[in-house]
Design goal:
The protein is an all-alpha fold. It has helices spanning 3-34, 39-46, 50-67, 72-77, 80-101, 110-133, 143-146, 149-165, 175-213. The longest helix is centred in the last third of the chain and has 39 residues, at 175-213. The radius of gyration is 18 Å and the shape is globular.
Amino acid sequence: MNRKMHGVARGWRILFAVIGWAALIAQYALSLEAGTRSVFGSTVIFFSYFTVLTNVLVALALTAPALFPDSRLGRWTATEGVRAAVAMYIAVVGLIYHALLDATWSPEGLLFYVNQVLHTVMPIAFVLDWLLFVPKGRLRWIDPVKWLAWPLLYGLWTVIHGQLIGWYPYWFVDIGALGWGRAAVNLAALLAFFLVLGLIVAALDRGLAALGKGDSTLTPS
């Protein structure tokens, strides 16, 4: 990647890192304001949403390579596999929200704009980051299987805190309302969706490399 493209990538990442962190902070403040639980309880609820956790991951993946490229976090989040995985995770956030959740509520005021940033702006921004600024041709077909670790950990966290406090962040994983069987089927379907999308990302990576977008001599930006 030439110097000019490095500069564009860094500017892009700083811009959307600021937008992403601002949206997360605003969302947290709004959740505290509207919450009926203690600050601790509201914080646990806040970090129970896949949208929030994945947007935190996105914000870190934008911030670290741009501002701290020589740090361990900066080097790790700049690798092709990590950036492809994060792009896939945040794409799922946008797709699931607009396909299954958008029609279930109507946020107003500041919450409407914050919601759009977290579910629409950040997914588009990070997928474009992966498409435009990340070297292609280095992913392996096994990588999408490894990327399932994030949704699996989230599913485990959701089940544990859901059983403890009797609350679930999304209707399609609500064991209390659906029962274990139906919730397990929904979780399995979500994992399959992650895997399919991950395979599509790996195929795109190979296809773009074949079209000349990849160069094994490039280093991550």
